[in-house]
Amino acid sequence: MKQTLLTVSALALAGSAAAADLDEVLSCNYETMGGIENIKAVESARMTGTMTMGPMQAPFTIEFKQPNSVRLEFEVQGMTAVQAYDGETGWAIMPFMGKTTPEEMADDQLKEIQEMAEWEGPLVDWQEKGHTVELIGTEDVEGTEAYALKVVRAGSEDEATYYLDTEYCLPFLSKGTRDIQGNSLAYSQTIGDYKEVGEIVMAHSMIASIGEGAAPMQQAITIETTELNVSDIDADRFAMPEVEEPAATTE
Prior knowledge:
Helix content: 10-25%
Oligomer: single chain
Largest sheet: 13 strands, antiparallel
C-alpha cells in the first residue's frame, strides 16, 4: 500500500489503538478511503475482472448506480448470466442452469445482492442505512493488529465481524454466517489489493469462503479495471425485464 494512503487520522490512531472509539476508527477508515465527500461523490461505477471458483474462471462486469442498484454479468460455458437489483427487486437470468428468462431471487440470494449493491461497504453512512455498528475492541488476527467491528445490517439478524487493520483502518477480513437454502453456514471474506481509483481507494481482490472443514466452497474475485461516474449506466439496466407470455395457439 502506498505511503500516501496513511492519513493524519491513521497516524494518530496507530499509536493508540487500544484507546480508539468507534467514531475515531470510522473517521480513519473514511479518510484512508479518500474522504467521505469523495466517497459520496461516486454516483455510478463499472468494474471488470475475473471470478474463480475451483477450476472455473468467468469474466465479469459489474455496474453500480446510487442509491442501491447493482447489475452483475458473467460468462460461463459461452453463456452470459445476469444478477441484478434495482433497489426493490432482485432478479437473475442463469442460462447454464436452464433459466433463460428473468426470475425473482429467493430470499438468501436477495440478501447477498443487496449487500453487493453497497459498493462502499456497510460502514459508510451506516446510521442512515439503518445498520448497527459496534466496536468490539482490538484483536490479533494472524499477526495483524485489528479493530473488530460487529455489524448487523438493516432488516437482518445476521451478525458479521469486520476486521480493520490499526494502521490504515481498512477492512481485510469479515466473518459471519449465511443462510443458504435453509442452512446456516459459516462465511468469511478476505479483502485486499487496495488501489487508488481517482480520488478514492478501493479493494480489488475478494476471496469468499462458505462452510467449514477441510474443503469449504471458495470464490475469488479479481477486479482488473474500474471506471467511476460512468455516464452510460441507465436506471433501466437494473430493472427486471418483463417476461412475454407465450402466444396463444388455436387448434
